[in-house]
């Protein structure tokens, strides 16, 4: 039997972000107040400026703080009043998202595809795919951001072992362990109503509005290697896309 591995400790900047989040929630830094300067945080915590900046970036992504010119970092919301705001422009942004949120697997196994699942995956009904269900949480928060259902191509035989205890993006595991390259990611965002089971796992009422963010990862030959269907309660998540000329 495999020995159960203890999870790797969180990066230092994530622990600092979680501590600052708790301080904001406790009222130490109310809305409108300034956080200590980067220099002051570096000195009091004994860390580098890079570490402090990464911690502040995590809080900014959560909508808790905002950097303002000549005003420093200002608290803009309390933890329970915010949505996680996710911006994406490249695969690197997906890696950062995976690193600044926690991923807890509830199930890792196999599934025989229904006709509907097979149509979605471009596979054959009855074919067996690797399947996992997980909850994603923002660092320092007990409330789940999303419930994720993962469908992984049967060509990725043995990836189940790597998923257990893994912290990073799944597609990074695919590239690292199987020597494959993700060339293209397709994303579809749609409004949904959370059913009773998904709502219970996410800690909201059945019928709560939500977002489905479905990402399909393809290799250089156009083969689908991974499909991740992420279900978010609408009140906890916002998606930001910036277009420039």
Q: TL;DR of this structure?
A:
This protein is an alpha+beta fold. Helices cover 29% and strands 33% of the residues.
Number of strands: 10
N/C terminus separation:
56 Å
Strand content: 25-35%
Mean pLDDT: 84
Task: Explain the overall architecture.
- By secondary structure, this protein is α+β, with helices and mostly antiparallel strands.
- It is built from eight helices and ten strands.
- Strands 4-5-6-9-8-7 form a six-stranded antiparallel sheet, sandwiched between helices. A two-stranded antiparallel ribbon has the order 1-2.
- α1 packs across α3 and α2 packs across α3.
- The longest helix is centred in the N-terminal third of the chain and has 14 residues.
- It is globular and about 60 Å long.
- The chain starts with 11 loop residues before the first helix and ends in a 5-residue tail after the last strand.
What descriptive keywords fit this protein?
single chain; 245 residues; alpha+beta; 6-stranded antiparallel beta sheet; globular; disordered N terminus
Helix-strand blueprint:
Elements: H1 12-25, H2 38-45, H3 49-61, E1 65-68, E2 72-75, E3 84-87, H4 91-99, E4 101-112, H5 115-121, E5 128-138, E6 144-152, H6 159-163, H7 170-178, E7 182-193, H8 196-202, E8 209-219, E9 224-233, E10 237-240
Parallel strand pairs: 3-10
Antiparallel strand pairs: 1-2, 4-5, 5-6, 6-9, 7-8, 8-9
């Amino acid at each position: 039997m495999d020995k159960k591995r203890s999870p790797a400790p969180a990066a230092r900047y994530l622990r600092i972000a979680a501590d600052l989040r708790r301080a904001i929630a406790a009222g130490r830094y109310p809305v409108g107040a300034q956080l200590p300067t980067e220099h002051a945080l570096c000195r009091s915590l004994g860390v580098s400026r890079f570490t402090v900046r990464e911690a502040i970036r995590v809080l900014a992504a959560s909508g808790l703080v905002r950097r303002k010119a000549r005003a420093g970092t200002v608290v803009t919301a309390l933890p329970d009043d915010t949505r996680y705001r996710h911006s994406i422009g490249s695969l690197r942004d997906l890696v950062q998202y995976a690193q600044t949120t926690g991923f807890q697997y509830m199930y890792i196994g196999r599934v025989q595809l229904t006709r509907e699942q097979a149509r979605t995956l471009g596979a054959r009904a009855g074919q067996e795919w690797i399947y996992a269900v997980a909850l994603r949480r923002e660092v320092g928060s007990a409330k789940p951001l999303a419930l994720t259902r993962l469908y992984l191509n049967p060509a990725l035989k043995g990836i189940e072992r790597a998923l257990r205890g893994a912290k990073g993006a799944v597609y990074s595991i695919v590239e690292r362990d199987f020597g494959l390259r993700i060339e293209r990611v397709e994303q579809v965002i749609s409004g949904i109503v959370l059913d009773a089971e998904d709502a219970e796992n996410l800690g909201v009422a059945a019928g709560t509005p939500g977002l489905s963010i479905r990402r399909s990862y393809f290799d250089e030959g156009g083969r689908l290697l991974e499909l991740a269907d992420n279900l978010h309660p609408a009140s906890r998540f916002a998606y930001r896309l910036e277009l420039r000329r």
